[in-house]
Amino acid sequence: MPASNPLADLLAEKGVLLADGATGTNLFAMGLESGEAPELWLDSAPEKITRLHQDFIDAGSDIILTNSFGGTRNRLKLHKAEDRVFALNKKAAEIARAVADKAPRKVIVAGSVGPTGDLLVPLGAMTYESAVDSFSEQIEGLKAGGIDVVWIETMSARDEIRAAAEAAVKHGLPYVYTGSFDTAGKTMMGVHPRDIHKIAADIGDGPLAVGANCGVGASDILSSLLDMTEADPDAIVVVKGNCGIPEFRGTEIHYSGTPPLMADYARLAVDAGARIIGGCCGTSCDHLRAMREAVDSHIKAQRPTVETIVERIGPMRNAVAGNAPAPTRERRGRRG
Amino acid sequence: MADDEIILSELSDDELVQQMHDDLYDGLKEEIEEGTNILLSRGWTPYDLLTEALVEGMRIVGEDFRDGILFVPEVLMSANAMKAGMSILRPLLIETGAPKLGKMVIGTVKGDIHDIGKNLVGMMMEGAGFDVIDLGINNPVENYIEAIEREQPDILGMSALLTTTMPYMKVVIDTMKEKGIRDDYIVLVGGAPLNEEFGKAVGADAYCRDAAVAVETAKELIKRRHNRLAASA
């Protein structure tokens, strides 16, 4: 684990930290149109990004994530903004930093780094080196804007996590990474939650924390959390789950989770050993306030089982991650 | 391992087809090409070869993907192997006028660059005998409308991976409704943040949770549509 840094210090001081809620879905509520890049609002509507950060802090967040999830050139290219990677990421960090520094308590600014959307060789055309370069360019901007830690999120491929971690280390920053366990309890690329710990252990001082975000529902991510904390009870584990399940009401997307449900999700997350708890898609400030209250008032209780989670939070969308180590089929012969 | 070495050309037709199912499962591109050429040289029709060796092999892959035994990396390798076989068969299929299951236009919606899931669906649909027109990523509504008017497909497929882009599917379907063409097509939607309820709410015919389900759903809905058309004729 890295030496002293603001996130490690705050964890040591408070035990369990509350991260923030959703960026995308909350910006929708502020008028972002479907298909628009949230990152472009850094230039066209910075006051809204400031407000979202401020609202999260007011609701009790100890950690806020910069509005830079799609800030690699691979993704900005889509909006013809691939030549503004540094500037946009720097601005994302500066906006979050300014809000955090005005807060009455210590608030960590985490630089959000999402997947490039491209596949690494041999499955796709992106080389490992070019992935490191893309992430490095983004992280350089985030660092210049003053982030405390690199927050690599919604990942599914092992090597893409490694590439982003390597880029963080290159810029001398500590890093956290979280996977999205949305496919039969594993990531789309087949990473099991229990295997999340060792992915980047050899890169820099290793991750400051690892965990899960997004995925499917709140019950599913708590089940992933059980796998992660069981595999390494000493690790600092993050869980940032969706606020229930997305549904349309009229023309608006609505998530099924209520504030009381997300409060109970937070209590179960504490019981299951999470040290950093937040929300992903659909998590509003009302939900966060309920989660803050839950984290503050809850005394860590017995480790829940999947059955307890389902009973209190609702049915899982996917099956619990299977234990089959590798695909096996009755075969006639194998090629040498 | 020399003892295990399999000489494809020494296998009987049945054994070779079985072996091709295994080789597809393992994503062995060159072996699939070789097997395809061997069966052709033995006088197999391109259509029988497609359905019995490739489509059947991909059906097994699709099932194990659906059941969480295989994940995206393995399925991509399998689909690439299948594509290699398909590229040998495609001109022959056209030449011999082999029957087609249907045609699909597919694309990722505006603002979304994710094409892994969409590509998988395209490849599996192709593997199942559909014609697939891939519009790529980041498609505004105009692209979809133009493509379906031009191509007259049976199916429109839309993909989104982000919560910020999935509502765009409704924009496309609403535009189709305005133009009075919604019911001329089967609309399938897919992507990680979606679910059945979402598919219904945006007005799609079905939500497909993965590429294997997309193929099954497409076949089923096309069959129903044919029955309906036949009944009303």
Automatic annotation (TrEMBL), chain A:
UniProt keyword annotation of Methyltransferase present: yes
Hcy-binding domain residues: 5-295
GO molecular function, one term: methyltransferase activity
UniProtKB keywords: Metal-binding, Methyltransferase, Transferase, Zinc
Cofactor: Zn(2+)
UniProt-listed GO biological process terms: methylation
Organism of this sequence: Hoeflea olei
Domain of life per record: Bacteria
Binding site for Zn(2+): 214, 280-281
Pfam family, one: S-methyl_trans
Name of the protein described by the UniProt record: Methionine synthase I
PANTHER family (UniProt xref): SLR1189 PROTEIN (PTHR11103:SF18)
TrEMBL record, chain B:
SUPFAM superfamilies: Cobalamin (vitamin B12)-binding domain (SSF52242), Methionine synthase domain (SSF47644)
UniProt keyword terms in alphabetical order: Cobalt, Metal-binding, Methyltransferase, Transferase
Metal-binding listed as a keyword: yes
PROSITE patterns: B12_BINDING, B12_BINDING_NTER
InterPro entries per UniProt: Cbl-bd_cap, Cobalamin-bd, Cobalamin-bd_sf, Met_Synthase/Corrinoid, Meth_synthase_dom
Domain spans labelled B12-binding N-terminal: 7-101
Pfam families per UniProt: B12-binding, B12-binding_2
Gene Ontology BP annotations: homocysteine metabolic process; methylation; tetrahydrofolate metabolic process
One Gene Ontology CC term in the entry: cytosol
GO molecular function, one term: metal ion binding
The B12-binding domain, residue ranges: 101-232
Sequence similarity: Belongs to the methylamine corrinoid protein family.
Name of the protein in its database record: 5-methyltetrahydrofolate--homocysteine methyltransferase
Organism: Hoeflea olei
